[in-house]
Amino acid sequence: MSHFVVIGAGQAGSSLVAKLRAEGFDGRITLVGAETAPPYQRPPLSKAYLLGEMEKARLFLRPEAWYAEHDIELRLGVTASALDAGARTVTLSDGETLSYDRLALCTGAHPRRLPAAIGGDLAGVFTMRDLADADTLAPEMVEGRRLLVVGGGYIGLEAAAVAAKRGLTVTVVEQAERILQRVAAPETSAYFRDLHQSHGVEIREGVGLERLLGEERVTGARLTDGSELTADFAIVGVGVAPGTGLAEPAGLALDNGIRCDIHCRTSDEHIWAAGDCASLLWADMRIRLESVGNAIDMAENAALNMLGRGVEYRPRPWFWSDQFDTKLQIAGLNASWDAVHVRPGETPAQASHWYYRGDKLIAVDAMNDSRAYMVGKRLIEAGRSPDPARATDPATDLKALLK
Fold it and tell me: Which residues cross the membrane (predicted)?
């Protein structure tokens, strides 16, 4: 009997094993996860779950019993400590060695932490990535306390929004010239700067963190401009690194993650990868897509190809973020944009930003405007690029752009 092993019990790993069974694979499947909880959704952790608006059980992608019902061996609370690609074996942290016929690496990504030399290991310094992070952080979210957020990306801003809604005093420090600089246009940065400031969040841009202050627990921070802030705790959101710790010593090719071909196969013919840990080909570029949509789609494609289907993976990037009462929906990928055109919404809280590279539409940021998002997504996936003046004219019926 063939044995397929999947390392990483997150969104990608769970989607992959489900697809294997749905496609009729009747061999042995083992899904290995480092956490003790069954596979769950991550996006709500920094939003509804941290706000106390979602119970833990609602996070789970499937009831734990589902895996046994589908004859999937779910190994939780253990990590894969070594991979021998030549022998086709994986050694687990509990000492067991698994032999496999096909292997999938869905090892995700881990948050970057601040160096200990600048206070990164002080008590009261948190990251926001997994369920344990959210559960540890939740008791800190007490009205009247002071939160320092290091990093003005989406994770940092989502955490800042939750804290502000719960009545904390929040300061966001971003070393770059503007929040969201790595992932969005100045127009989108300005929208979210205004949004946070309107809710009392202090945004400090263009200034870095020199060090966190405190003896055993963080009490504040000294910034690169010489100013000091007081804080009861801090959340660090300075990006993530792909989970390549198992792949690299096994000799798999890396390129900003585990390098995959168009079939999600790694440099080893018996190993596939999917999700945040994997780098893939998209529009003649090699990228990593950190999103739920990609985790699901890439994992399901990998499952098909582990079964020998030979299906090429063509990602269709989309993302979202919830902050305060604003839902941001992003269609496409804004790599190498050279112009952004703003379409006003029907209310001041609505807007959409249309990214062009030359005369080609490549992405849309839609704030509280699901119609602009859906139309933009369909246009991008169809390879159609309306004239930007027409697309962003409020008098233009968006659906007319699809005709």
Answer: none
